[in-house]
Design goal:
Shape: globular
CATH architecture of the largest domain: 3-Layer(aba) Sandwich
Structural class: alpha/beta
Order of helices and strands: EEHHEHEHEHEHEEEHEHEHHHEE
Number of strands: 13
CATH topology of the largest domain: Peroxisomal Thiolase, Chain A, domain 1
Helix content: 25-40%
Number of helices: 11
Strand order of the largest sheet: 1-7-6-4-5
Number of domains: 2
Length: 350
């Protein structure tokens, strides 16, 4: 039986700029009470506009994870970087992080699964460790949302939710039997992909919901990839049908958690800690109630950081570990749901 992979080191980074709900009232018609009631969020962190990027935040989290793993950047032999807010449209953040950390000429894979990105990335890295192909894999989830949000009343339903930050882990082969990532479970359903999306800029010729059987149109050659109209109509900002997302999330979140437990012949009573993606405190509370979990079995930090998408799970896991809420032999479940729709879980024996 091949050894499992384990999280040998973990770290996170959040920017110093703290933005409260009251701060947002300067830019849009909202209130602290309105935001707390709908999301549970009290504050979030924003990266420096010019001094910090998705990659630089990922680098900070990675340095901590690498040090705690007792290794060095030179010993990392593969990178998996999850984000929906890369520094550039291309290339991806993986190679930028490899350059910044002065690593060897190793492989770097970018994952674009939004809120589920880190769990997807962890699953990919887990398979590489299990197969023996790599020995030290760096998995990063990082986001800089603040530069691309609509800070007007028009965009408040989305803009009040998101924050910036990064988390990272180093995966290595487990040292003892039964330790490590027991299983991962990945799902998707693209039927309603457009109800949580950022449409522009994109290659769909400015049609927000392209048909799958569209024919080539010569008249479309040279059509604007990015235009003033897109900006004026708010088409360059994220769009979300909040109630529809909530309705789907509260079904798929519990399902994928139960799937992980069932696959390992365990129950919610065996679970020491659930770390859900920090999408909305109301979703996390609904899932906790549905699974009949105690408060001490669920870790949430969305109140302080907002939704940091691919970074939310590793930031929360890192914080929980630092606070002593994750201990050796604990059973920990990571779960996420987001745009796509995609959803995923990972069950870990720490």
């Amino acid at each position: 039986m091949r050894p499992l992979s384990r999280i040998a080191g973990i770290g996170h980074y959040v920017p110093k700029n703290l933005v409260t709900n009251h701060d947002l009232t300067k830019y849009m018609e909202t209130s602290d009470e309105w935001i707390r009631e709908r999301t549970g969020i009290e504050e979030r962190r924003y990266a420096d506009r010019l001094g910090e990027t998705t990659t630089t935040m990922g680098v900070e989290a990675a340095r901590i994870a690498i040090e705690r793993a007792g290794t060095t950047p030179e010993q990392i032999d593969f990178i998996v970087f999850a984000t929906l807010s890369p520094d550039y449209y291309f290339p991806g953040c993986g190679v930028l992080l490899q350059r910044a950390l002065k690593m060897k000429e190793i492989g770097a894979l970018d994952v674009r699964n939004q809120c589920s990105g880190f769990v997807y990335a962890l699953s990919v890295a887990d398979q590489f460790i299990r197969s023996g192909m790599y020995q030290n894999i760096l998995v990063v989830g990082a986001e800089k949302h603040s530069f691309g949000l609509d800070f007007t009343t028009r965009g408040r339903n989305v803009s009040v939710i998101f924050g910036d930050g990064a988390g990272a882990v180093v995966l290595q082969r487990a040292e003892r039997e039964g330790q490590g990532i027991l299983s991962t479970h990945l799902h998707s359903d693209g039927e309603s992909a457009e109800i949580l999306a950022m449409y522009n800029p994109g290659t769909h010729a400015n049609h927000w919901m392209p048909t799958p059987y569209a024919t080539f149109d010569e008249a479309a050659i040279g059509q604007t990839f990015f235009s003033h109209k897109m900006i004026e109509e708010g088409q360059v900002y994220p769009y979300m049908d909040g109630p529809a997302v909530f309705k789907k999330a509260v079904v798929k979140f519990p399902e994928v958690i139960q799937e992980a437990l069932f696959a390992n012949q365990l129950t919610t009573a065996d679970l020491n800690l659930l770390i859900p993606h920090q999408a909305n405190l109301r979703i996390a509370q609904f899932v906790q109630q549905k699974l009949k979990l105690r408060d001490d079995q669920v870790y949430n930090n969305i109140q302080r950081y907002g939704n940091t998408t691919a970074a939310s799970v590793p930031i929360a896991l890192s914080e929980a570990w630092e606070q002593g809420k994750v201990k050796e032999n604990d059973l920990v479940c990571l779960a996420a749901f987001g745009s796509g729709f995609t959803w995923a879980s990972a069950l870990i024996r720490w």
